[in-house]
């Protein structure tokens, strides 16, 4: 299939996918589902206590108060009704896609519109944008932070001042941390870029200081990394969760940029065999992606086998993609923009390592803007791109439908 036709077909597919998302949300149940009640309660708590330490310490979810601030702005429209609050998240997804397209347009990409809309190819995006959950407000601010940081690097390439760009980027990243704490890891990305270019040392130092200045007061009030209501949750490290997240990221990367020669075949096979052997010796790890869909269509015996297979598959994908991403970062180390995007993707995708009590693919989806930009240089428009885009959108649609059908 010629690239121009493939691009147009993919664009049409994404338009239909967006209409399907809006339809699913508009016809969704008029009650809060899954984790929505924990976060929807943030706005009434803000009304009750105001912006005080009592409010901060009364949060019923695991994340910061950014969700409450954003939905407070939209309250005149939503009246805190579930369907309308979900539509706000759809609007926020449109904002993220627009910012990504704006950056790609600056890079003279002819397919910037389709690339920006490819957020819907990432299956987890459908749940984030289709439900009244906490990730979308933070995603908007982290995408804006990334955009400003890349503008700063663009200015550096042209010999112009960069400090204002980096300060603005740091402020928005600090705000994003008030929505999802793992984004704090992104404060180290400019430091990595500064190791490559000495001109970034002072901007990187100020960037880190500004992010910390905004984030640390939140943790001081909580006396921890999560609200007091969740201090009992197990703390610690979970490399397994990190590898699973990287596995999800790698699969989404392939949906965006279907290509199968990232590593030499022998290296890939060796990594898979070592991972499977390690998983078998340490105790079989099981995983149930899109569990809501699987439980509806597979018998119990098949569900068990599905979990064992996916466990080894995702751990193997995680190891292979980790090596691949490190190789991409090293190979493009002279390009500060590519280093920033790919290192940021690694930071967010690996952040579930620090969440020991559980893993959710929503944690991986927080890397969405980095994932879209990291995959873009590798996209080769053709029939396989259309097929993988269809698969990604289809899985996302079924996943969201599964939550709404419960």
Core attributes:
406 residues; 70% helix; globular; mainly alpha; 21 helices
Structural notes for this entry:
By secondary structure, the protein is mainly α. The chain has 21 helices and no strands. Helix 10 packs antiparallel against helix 18 (336-350) and helix 14 (239-256) packs across helix 21 (383-404). The protein is globular and about 60 Å long. The mean pLDDT is 88.
Please specify the SSE layout and strand pairing:
Layout: H1 3-26, H2 36-40, H3 42-49, H4 53-57, H5 66-73, H6 75-78, H7 82-106, H8 112-117, H9 123-130, H10 135-157, H11 163-177, H12 189-196, H13 201-222, H14 239-256, H15 265-282, H16 291-297, H17 300-331, H18 336-350, H19 361-365, H20 368-375, H21 383-404
In terms of quaternary structure, the protein is single chain
Low-pLDDT runs: none
Rounded to the nearest angstrom, the distance between the terminal CA atoms is 40 Å
Radius of gyration: 21 Å
Helix and strand pattern: HHHHHHHHHHHHHHHHHHHHH
**Overall mean pLDDT score?**
88
Our estimate of the beta-strand percent is: under 5%
Structural class: mainly alpha
Largest sheet: none
Separate helix tally: 21
Query: What's the helical proportion of residues?
Result: over 70%
What gross morphology would you assign? globular
The total count of strands amounts to 0
């Amino acid at each position: 299939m010629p690239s121009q036709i493939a691009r147009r077909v993919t664009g049409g597919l994404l338009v239909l996918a967006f209409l399907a998302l809006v339809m699913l949300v508009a016809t969704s149940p008029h009650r809060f589902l899954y984790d929505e009640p924990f976060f929807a309660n943030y706005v009434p708590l803000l009304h009750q206590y105001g912006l005080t330490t009592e409010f901060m310490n009364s949060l019923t979810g695991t994340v910061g108060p950014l969700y409450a601030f954003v939905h407070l702005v939209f309250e005149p429209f939503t009246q805190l009704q579930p369907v309308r609050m979900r539509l706000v998240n759809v609007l926020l997804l449109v904002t993220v896609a627009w910012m990504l397209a704006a950056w790609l347009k600056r890079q003279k990409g002819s397919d910037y519109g389709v690339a920006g809309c490819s957020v819907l190819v990432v299956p987890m995006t459908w749940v984030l944008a289709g439900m009244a959950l906490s990730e979308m407000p933070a995603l908007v601010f982290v995408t804006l932070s990334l955009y400003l940081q890349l503008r700063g690097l663009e200015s550096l390439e042209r010999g112009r001042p960069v400090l204002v760009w980096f300060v603005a980027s740091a402020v928005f990243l600090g705000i994003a941390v008030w929505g999802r704490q793992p984004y704090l890891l992104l404060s180290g990305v400019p430091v990595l870029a500064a190791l490559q270019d000495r001109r970034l040392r002072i901007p990187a130092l100020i960037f880190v200081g500004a992010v910390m200045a905004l984030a640390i007061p939140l943790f001081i009030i909580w006396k921890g990394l999560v609200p007091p209501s969740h201090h009992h949750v197990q703390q610690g490290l979970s490399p397994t969760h990190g590898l699973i997240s990287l596995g999800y990221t790698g699969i989404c990367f392939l949906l965006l940029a279907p290509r199968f020669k990232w590593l030499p075949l022998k290296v890939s096979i060796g990594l898979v065999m070592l991972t499977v052997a390690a998983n078998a010796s340490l105790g079989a790890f099981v995983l149930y992606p899109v569990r809501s869909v699987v439980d509806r269509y597979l018998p119990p015996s098949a569900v068990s086998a599905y979990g064992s297979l996916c466990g080894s598959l995702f751990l193997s994908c995680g190891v292979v993609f980790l090596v691949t991403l490190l190789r991409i970062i090293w190979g493009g180390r002279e390009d500060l923009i590519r280093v920033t995007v790919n290192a940021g993707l690694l930071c967010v995708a690996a952040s579930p390592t620090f969440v020991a009590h559980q893993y959710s693919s929503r944690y991986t989806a927080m890397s969405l803007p980095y994932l879209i930009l990291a995959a873009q240089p590798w996209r080769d428009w053709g029939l396989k791109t259309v097929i993988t885009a269809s698969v990604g959108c289809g899985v996302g649609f079924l996943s969201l439908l599964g939550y709404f059908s419960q």
